[in-house]
Task: inverse folding
């Protein structure tokens, strides 16, 4: 229903922007393209991908571990038939591992070979040229020369330290990298940037301001069944429903340290299939709980009686 | 979803002022929306079917929100603004909502987060605490004042020493090492010292200089007289280890990191005192630590040092405290307990909570330890024996 407050919008002409530069025509196309790659995208996710492409802004994806944040980038690269450049974040990640590094051995060898033939100034300008540059993921994404822009995945940024966030700011706002010896390198095309975070720490406002935001929570029962049917097609519909319903019950345990994500559900379903199961029984659940529950405390809680309550009356 | 278009929509005359008012409305509701995000929304609306309510709400979510808390708030006020039936509660149109607390890492709403409109202090059991007078009750509110400059410098220096003591994370500096990456400049220098001959590769690795703290500060009534000392320590530790998170607890856990981070001592003290104004008397250390693990468990890693600042005066279940401390101890790098009475010669672990805690902690310190240059040695060894 259109509310009175929205009525002014009716008077505005509608339609798509002229001079389209995005990767998709609309959010429906995103759902379709990701669906072809076996990824079930809901409308908010599709809208975020569509707008990130249209506005040429990085997409910050936060959410529970194992809910498909990393998979978005992987699937998107496959859907766009382009290269996926991945930067896995960790403590102590620095400019040398993310932007570029000078090829020191090559420089040393060149100095030794050329020192008698060239003067120092000439030699210096030679060894600080692009030929001696080792491109790391951010620079590689910027200078990628394929037919379509690459998908750059900056995974688990909350694992990196705050200095690294500062390092990213120039890249994310202007899509350029400044190398003191060479100058500023600006990309021909803006890469599609997906940044993921598990929220183990709060990211800086400066970084968040530069990104479109998407939060992925645990899927509903229906969506989880659909994901199971799509990713593990040999699983029967009924068995998929049974598996998803049990996982949803485990996930509802609020005191659990690590609640199972979709990836755990898929692993568990595959394990059950490999064991030739077509029905959930207490024995088989107990034997395969390790696929679903990844914390000793949670495992202990399930094994010491709570499993019966979750399984309900037989 | 997007209509077949004849050209770009002209949003400027009517819709943009309305969008600006919506963003102002969101800001009053506690969602911090910058100009950049507002412009992003305006641009996004030219690319979607703006009359489709779901698409419009999705665009608002994607461009304006920056955290799960923002999302929940935005969804709550979206209908209030974009529907005709909403009447603002006061003449200025201010929404009666509190400033946003920091969300839990798992996105769960915090127990101190007001679910309704009014910023009430609601306990876990749903009972709203009404002020009750007792002549023995500590003075209401937290009085935090600036300590003497020299003393503050000593605490600061102690916090730095403690960071080095508890360091598990690589810093930006390197140290020579038998294993690690090749230090090319050092290799070149070494080569030059040997007449240009390439003698050996010099290796180096990053020094372990940085620590990550999870600081749990008991802000209950029994600790009120130590507020100043402990806040000075908390502030110093938060400032020397940037990735630290600070929580206050009494009967519930409340995150204070954003209240302290980036502020001068005086401003941080003022903000913390105001933010703790709703904390009541009584301490449930076990329950609070359990709540901390459920909501912020992801912060407790093998490289985290968990620091509990408390006198151990627990009104809750001692068994629960023991179990929870055991869980934390097994998951973190160091579990440190700072008790304001620990350096007193006649001190004994008299309370049940303290007796239970001493069995699980790695270090049992007094706040004064941070003001001296002595090494961090547990004063709890004599108590444990």
Result:
């Amino acid at each position: 229903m259109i509310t009175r407050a929205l009525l002014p919008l009716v008077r505005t002409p509608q339609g798509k922007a002229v001079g389209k530069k995005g990767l998709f025509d609309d959010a429906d196309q995103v759902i379709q393209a990701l669906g072809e790659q076996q990824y079930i995208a809901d409308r908010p996710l599709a809208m975020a991908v569509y707008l990130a492409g249209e506005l040429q802004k990085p997409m910050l994806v936060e959410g529970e571990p194992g809910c498909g944040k990393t998979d978005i980038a992987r699937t998107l690269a496959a859907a766009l038939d382009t290269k996926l450049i991945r930067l896995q974040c960790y403590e102590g990640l620095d400019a040398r591992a993310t932007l570029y590094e000078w090829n020191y051995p090559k420089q040393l060898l060149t100095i030794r070979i050329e020192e008698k033939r060239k003067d120092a100034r000439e030699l210096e300008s030679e060894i600080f040229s692009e030929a001696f540059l080792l491109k790391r993921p951010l620079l590689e994404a910027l200078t990628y020369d394929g037919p379509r822009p690459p998908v750059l995945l900056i995974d688990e940024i909350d694992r990196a330290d705050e200095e690294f966030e500062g390092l990213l700011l120039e890249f994310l706002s202007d899509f350029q990298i400044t190398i003191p010896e060479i100058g500023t390198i600006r990309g021909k095309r803006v890469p599609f940037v997906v940044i993921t975070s598990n929220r183990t720490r709060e990211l800086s406002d400066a970084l968040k301001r530069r990104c479109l935001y998407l939060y992925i929570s645990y899927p509903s029962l229906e969506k989880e069944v659909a994901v199971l049917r799509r990713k593990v097609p040999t699983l029967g519909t009924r068995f998929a429903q049974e598996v998803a319903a049990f996982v949803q019950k485990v996930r509802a345990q609020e005191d659990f340290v690590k609640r199972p994500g979709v990836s755990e559900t898929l692993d568990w379903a595959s394990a059950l299939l490999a064991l030739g199961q077509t029905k959930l029984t207490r024995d088989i659940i107990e034997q395969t709980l390790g696929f679903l529950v990844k914390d000793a405390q949670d495992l202990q809680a399930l094994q010491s009686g709570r499993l019966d309550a979750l399984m309900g009356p037989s | 979803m997007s209509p077949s278009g004849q050209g770009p929509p002209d949003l400027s005359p009517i819709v943009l002022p309305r969008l600006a008012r919506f963003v102002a409305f969101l800001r009053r509701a506690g969602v911090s929306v910058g100009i950049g995000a507002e412009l992003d929304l305006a641009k996004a609306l030219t690319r979607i079917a703006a009359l489709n309510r779901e698409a419009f709400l999705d665009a608002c979510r994607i461009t304006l929100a920056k955290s799960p808390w923002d999302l929940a708030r935005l969804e709550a006020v979206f209908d209030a603004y974009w529907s005709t039936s909403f009447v603002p509660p006061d003449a200025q149109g201010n929404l009666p909502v509190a400033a946003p607390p920091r969300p839990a890492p798992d996105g769960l709403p915090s127990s101190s987060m007001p679910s309704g409109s009014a910023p009430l202090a609601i306990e876990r059991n749903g009972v709203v605490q009404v002020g009750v007078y007792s002549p023995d009750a500590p003075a209401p509110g937290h009085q935090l004042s600036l300590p003497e400059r020299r003393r503050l410098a000593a605490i600061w220096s102690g916090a730095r020493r403690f960071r080095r003591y508890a360091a598990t994370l690589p810093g930006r500096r390197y140290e020579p090492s038998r294993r690690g990456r090749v230090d090319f400049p050092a290799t070149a220098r070494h080569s030059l010292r040997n007449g240009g001959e390439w003698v050996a590769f010099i290796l180096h690795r990053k020094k372990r200089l940085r620590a990550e703290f999870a600081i749990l500060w008991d802000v209950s009534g029994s600790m009120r007289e130590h507020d100043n000392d402990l806040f000075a320590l908390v502030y110093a530790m938060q400032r020397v280890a940037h990735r630290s998170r600070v929580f206050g607890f009494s009967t519930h856990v409340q995150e204070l990191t954003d209240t302290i981070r980036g502020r001068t001592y005086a401003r941080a003290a003022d903000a913390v005192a105001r933010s703790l104004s709703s904390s009541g008397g009584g301490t449930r250390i076990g329950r609070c630590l359990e709540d901390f693990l459920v909501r912020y468990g992801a912060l407790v890693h093998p490289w985290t040092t968990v620091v509990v600042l408390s006198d151990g005066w627990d009104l809750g279940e001692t068994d629960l405290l023991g179990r929870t401390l055991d869980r934390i101890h097994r998951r973190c790098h160091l579990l440190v307990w700072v008790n304001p009475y620990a350096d007193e010669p006649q001190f004994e672990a008299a309370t049940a909570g303290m007796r239970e805690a001493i069995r699980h902690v790695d270090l049992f310190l007094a706040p004064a330890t941070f003001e001296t240059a002595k090494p961090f040695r547990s004063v709890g060894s004599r108590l444990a024996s």
Q: What stands out?
A: Residues 1-8, 84-140 of chain B have pLDDT under 50 and may be disordered. The radius of gyration of chain B is 26 Å.
